[in-house]
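Researcher: Please translate sequence to structure tokens.
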Amino acid sequence: MGKNRYDVKRGHFKNIEGDQLKELIEEKFGKAEEKEDKLIIQDVGAISHLEVWTEGRTGLWVDLEMNPDVDNETASSTIKKWNDFLEEATGFNAKERKKRAKKKAKEK
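Model: Translation complete:
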């Protein structure tokens, strides 16, 4: 998937500031390593590598590499956890994130 920036809903950043983002990512995926203001997860489900960090109070950056060689059940479970994580981290559900991404693409 590569590197992506997700908007954080206005007023929602308070839910991921400080250690709360780390707590959220560890709740969904297990132990996260902290390195240079980034949270890093390795080899969890269909995720081979994940880095997450914030940009100010309005953006959440992710750099995600998926493992295409996992079984369908592992892939589905990981995608569900990923979508749950993004919704809790950004305040936007999958439909809202898709709509915002389309709007930004048209602006470019």
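Researcher: Any highlights?
Model: The CA atoms of residues 18 and 73 lie 33 Å apart.
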